[in-house]
Amino acid sequence: MDSGELSQLIEALRAHGADHFTCEVKKSKGGMPVTLWESISAFSNAAGGTLLLGVDEKSDFAVTGVDDPAAMESHIGAVCSEMEPPVRAEIQTFSIEGQQVVCCTVPPVPREQRPCHRRALGPWAGSRVRVADGDRKLTDYEVAVLLANRTEPRCDVSPVREARFEDLDAELISAFLRRIRETRGDIFQRVDDQRALMMLNVLTTHEEHVVPTLAGLLVFGIYPQTFQPQLDVTIVAYPTTEAGVPGRFGERFIENRSIDGPIPLIVAESIRVLKRNMRRRSIISGIYRVDEWEYPEEVLREALVNALVHRDYSEFARGTQVQVEMYPDRLVIRNPGGLYGPVEVGSLGANTGSSSRNKALLKILEDTPFGDGHMVCENRGTGIARMLVALTEAGMEPPRFTDDIALFTVEFPNHALLDEETLVWLTSLPVPPLSRSQMTALAMMRNGVVFTNSSYRAATGVLDSRTATRELKELVDAGVVEQTGTRGSTAYQVVRPAPEATRGNPRLSGNEKRILAALADGPLSRLDLEAATGLNKDQVHYGLQTLRGKGRIELLGKPQSRRALWRTIG
């Protein structure tokens, strides 16, 4: 960071009116803040951030300066060295508005080394995390999750001491062993069933008894909840977009269920319950309209399997279920335990790297039939990519992922990204036939999204970086997308027409002229325009989009709203 960038940061803070997730300011006029280590710990355990000493938040971020910047730099360095692991911060002093401001840039600590804490206090008392514009103490469970990430968890192979082999479903076990012996060569042909199941981590020993492992019980148990009552899925369907707000008949829930049983049964029954609370809608597939569920079944399956397979099964978390919440405008799935290993939220779906805290469970489900000929889990790191492809093919927005250390959340917006208005806009563009991923990306760019190669892959499910580059280049070559930056900083956004260059264009179609004439008396909705012009829905859609592209009209309101109005420009 240089002085110019620092000045811009202070101006941005003044405009925002408060600290934010990656910046903390402290007046520090009387010396070093005693809570400095908390901010360093918090930034290290999140996305990193910037500490500014010599700026007063309470006085509209006035630059008050520090008295002895050299001593303060030395003190900050000492505090960074007292952290575990030590923080390698960049510490500089700048002259801003005639005052000396000390700037400390704190990098994020690698996930496998968290929690970054004050060594003298230990991880349980000395760890903080950044939330909005403040720092908070990590909970005991959050510390436990982060410490577990430093080692290879073995919770899924722990013995279920009270259970016995008879608590497993003999038919499921038989089908599993049959597939194993058909696909794994001679290894399992030479041993009996019990020995094979122990080698596969379905069974283990405890005090000279053969008992199921937790993984074995969760996959093959007749009723695993006899021994682990909370290891199930809860599904709540709400009548409104906010939990706790009743529907028009006073109802709090449309559906409220707990789904028990082994994992394959839980997934199948959860999908059935969700579909019971879903509507069908028409989507465009090639040149055809196809009736599809609001959320594709493959997406539901992948999301539920991911939540059950990657959740935390430690003693801390066994009292927490996987939670599914269905609202009119979104579907939310939460599981205890954040991301494990070096995986970051921003890379989900962009590569096939796999990292799981429950390796034995994954391995077992890789050979467990789901009932439709597929296995429950592929264990190839492609589940989220397949989910993104299915959403792209259904013309829907990609999901939003949130990792809060103790909880991982995936949220699916119930919104058709490729609605009729967007499809009309896409057909008006001077481009060759588009792939489904290109259509999805253009629709998102139209709403203001700027893509990199990585975020394009994460949003569309395209796995190959070269394929993503080629598809983006095709859009650039067609003149509908502009490219900025080079190499690692390359970004892509939709080209916006310059109204000044097109406003005087006299070449209008007959339908465009009829629409402009109807708008001459004031703003109208699309339905009003259909009535005023006598044009059908598709003709009005197309005319509105071409007139918008020529800079003759603009939209007032949200694109998907039936109440949105169109008006002429100038």
Report on the architecture of this protein.
By secondary structure, the chain is of the alpha+beta class. The chain has five domains: 3-138, Schlafen, AAA domain (Methyltransferase, Cobalt-precorrin-4 Transmethylase, Domain 2); 155-226, no CATH class; 264-314 and 328-413, Heat Shock Protein 90 (2-Layer Sandwich); 420-494, Arc Repressor Mutant, subunit A, CATH 1.10.10.10; 500-568, Winged helix-like DNA-binding domain superfamily/Winged helix DNA-binding domain (Arc Repressor Mutant, subunit A, Orthogonal Bundle). β15 (280-285) and β16 (288-293) form a beta hairpin. α15 (453-460) crosses α16. The radius of gyration is 28 Å and the shape is globular. Residues 499-504 have low confidence and may be disordered.
**Total count of helical runs of at least 4 residues:** 20
**Which second-level CATH architecture of the largest domain applies?**
2-Layer Sandwich
What number is the mean pLDDT? 87
- Which range does the strand content fall in? 15-25%
CATH topology of the largest domain: Heat Shock Protein 90
The main pleated sheet reads as: 6 strands, mixed
| Total number of distinct structural domains | 5
Q: Structural class from helices and strands?
A: alpha+beta
Strand line-up in the sheet with most strands: 14-13-17-18-20-19
CATH class of the largest domain: Alpha Beta
Number of DSSP strand runs: 25
Overall helicity? 25-40%
Rg over C-alpha atoms, rounded to the nearest angstrom: 28 Å
Q: Spans with pLDDT under 50 lasting ≥5 residues? A: 499-504
Distance between the termini: 43 Å
Shape: globular
